[in-house]
Amino acid sequence: MVTRGRGRAAWVAVTLAVVAGVAGCTGATDAPVPPVPTGSLRDGSVTAAPTATTEPTPVPSLTPVDTLRCAREVQRPGPGPLPGSVLQDAVPAVRWGGGLSGAVETVPGPDAGRCAPGLPAVRCADRPPWLYPPTTDLFTASGATRALRGQVMGQVRRTTSAGATVLDLQSATWASLTLAPADAARAATYLRSTVERCADGSPQTLGGRRVDVGIAPSQYRQGPATVVVLTGPAAVGWLVLDGTTALSTSELARLVAAAAPRLVPTR
After folding, report:
1. What predicted TM-score, i.e. pTM, was given to this entire model?
2. Does 124 reside within a domain?
3. Which of 124, 237, 239, 240 could pair with 263 in a Cys bridge, judged by C-beta atoms 3.0 to 4.6 Å apart?
4. Residue 230 belongs to a domain
């Protein structure tokens, strides 16, 4: 019995020695280091770092600003708020026609709430109104809820020069933006500064309306075109009046008097 007990004790000792040896070998080998988490505990964005056998989790890309649908333009069949008949009554010497392809309406696009562009840069070397508003940037940055723009063409008379018939044209390019009162005041300041900078504009009373008037190179003749900035409590707009023959002061005043209430009401 003593011999059997000693044998069992020896067997147990050998077994423990083997286990200890295995444990010792495992401890001597470099154990794999668990991946270091990335992210922040504060915002709950902790994720496991990729290992050699784990592909990184793709991060969803943000929608580029230039792909956002900030505004939407719709071609309207009619002439909008400024038909040729209104201008005809104001300046009967010109045979005013209809708008070119109708008025264009701009409304907020499906992504308008995610768009916050700055006001567009002014380029005085371009044709008035220099930034071609209402562009998407101006429409969205100004906070406008609706915009309309168009152009009405007219013919004064046909003249003969060097045996060729010359068509004497007049044009009235117009635009109107509807805004909240606070946004209208900010947009008015922006447009006034633009006409002052690019067309030496100044405040004037024209057609019974307080407006800002500037002059710019004509696209029809060697002379100036007239740029008129219109402002109101809930809207802003402008007129660019041009032609092969300049309108007289009285014609210009009557035209502004007829167009201004339709584009930018004062109440």
Report:
1. 0.70
2. yes
3. 237
4. yes
Q: Considering Cα of 168, then 174, then 127, then 212, what sign does the dihedral take?
A: positive
Question: Strand pairing partners for 153?
Answer: 171
Give the domain CATH number at 201: 3.40.1000
Sequence letter at residue 224: P
What is the tally of structural domains in the chain? 1
Which token pair is 188? 């008015």
> Which amino acid is present at 183?
D
In this structure, is the dihedral angle defined by the CA atoms of residues 12, 13, 18 and 20, taken in order, positive or negative? positive
Q: Of the candidates 241, 230, 164, which has an alpha carbon nearest to the alpha carbon of residue 203?
A: 230
Task: Give the range of the structural domain holding residue 174, as residue numbers without chain letter.
Answer: 66-263
Please report whether residue 58 resides in a domain: no
Q: Is residue 116 part of a domain?
A: yes
